Amino acid sequence: MSVVKRHALTVYALLAVAYLMLPIAVVILFSFNDPAGRFNYVWQEFTFANWSEWDAVLGLRDAVLTSLLIGLLATVVATALGTLIALAIVRHDFHGRGTANVLVFLPMSTPEIVLGASLLTLFLNMTSVFQLGFWTIFIAHVMFVVSFVVVTVKARLIGFDRHLEEAAMDLGADEWTTFRKVTLPLLAPAMLAAALLGFALSIDDFVITYFVAGSEQTFPVFVWGIARVAVPPQVNVVASAIFLLAICLALANVLWQYRAAKRERGSPATSGV
Amino acid sequence: MGSFLHRHPRLTPYLLLAPGVFWLALFFLVPLGFLAYQSLQSGIFPAYEFTWEFSNFTDALSDYREQLVRSFLYAGIATVACLVLAYPLVYWIAFRAGPWRNLFLLFIVAPFFVTYLIRTLAWLNILADEGPVVGALRGLHLLDEDGRLLATTFAVVAGITYNFFPFMALPLYVSLEQIDARLLEAAKDLYASPTQAFLRVTLPLSAPGIVAGTLLTFIPAAGDFINAALLGTPRQQMIGNVIQAKFLESLDYPTAASLSFILMAAILVALLVYARIVGSEKLTG
Asked: Does B220 contact A114 at a Cβ distance shorter than 8 Å?
């Protein structure tokens, strides 16, 4: 009995993880299915054909490329804008700082459907400036990624040693040089983390994109359209590929952190304390 | 540029803020203004006119009260389900997983790496009428011979629960992970039973995580329309489905805009009520 009691939590944890992994396993499994009809619901036969001919479905390749391109552009712009906001909020005490904090926080706490709907009303009321399509999606993605970048970079900036920058200034570097040679390299890991998060958010977004896309299709918008008819296994292929890529990046990160922690423990500076 | 900033150091933060704040103002605040403007218009597409049409709000509220109530009910149930499902798992990761912690955290975020729509569609496969789950439940007579899981309230709520699970689990983990193990040892030394130690030490200390997780789960869940659209029927429609259909299919912008504001206002009220409950519990506890 006590054995059961002691291990009940572990068993539960493993079951919960199985529950979380189940749909992912299904997505990957059905990317190898050879469906009998149009519907890819029932397991028929194993095949590699969906992977080797992943772009056999009309429109899929373009949608994936659009998603990647928007993800890249929006991430670069949002990372730049968000990092600057984080620098201002953490480094400077100024009038309006609280307001800036609220402005950054608000988009994250607004339901996506409201963000999408309000952007669409803006674009529809100003059709002379904005035509729904690639650039309106880009605008929307930058808007909702910026807040996440600010939060990520802020967390890093708060525990940041300012002495290094002061030292650079003491050695005669001007502000711009100090920023370029000291601040930016130190911030790079946080910016990279923020950029990866932003890219993931952008690639995955459906709700906001769907509102402002017009006739342009990103991968999620394409999936939504085709889900009303029948989802071809190639969609599972693309989803599986994105998943495996992300998992590899995440695993590499976990490993890297693990090794960094180990090195830190082993280094004389800390073990001597 | 450097010398300019030297002469006006106070301008630096504003210059840093300017581009990002400009973007957020133009594409977050201004659109909300346009949404408000649209919500008070009347007429027939495409000739809507601004007429201070406040009846849009009362009409929308009476026509779609059912969907609104359902959204909050589903989001509420899913949030509680997430909390109950996530807490033991995250507790185990924080206190028992040892060197496997990061790996198990990765398991929690892994669903995010599969496109939202696709992981919802995967539940179509799992819950399908001819699938293994329905087959097993029918075999055990837990489900009628022609009973279904798809196109039911259960499927929609289960979909929402699955999709927002990490939003609950991650903040919970952060708060549990920060608990000082010595506090639990102290409780044990003072003859607290494991249950008492959990109820009097662990649970209260994880309260910030519960609050954050609840907010992060409830807000997006209340506005969701994907689970109801893919796993449910019109009888499971949520307010998000109505907003989406009004905006993009029937092009009834004023109603859609007023419904968006009603959704935001309702979420705000729910948050205030929640804050009251959480606050008063802290006072009495």
From this structure: no
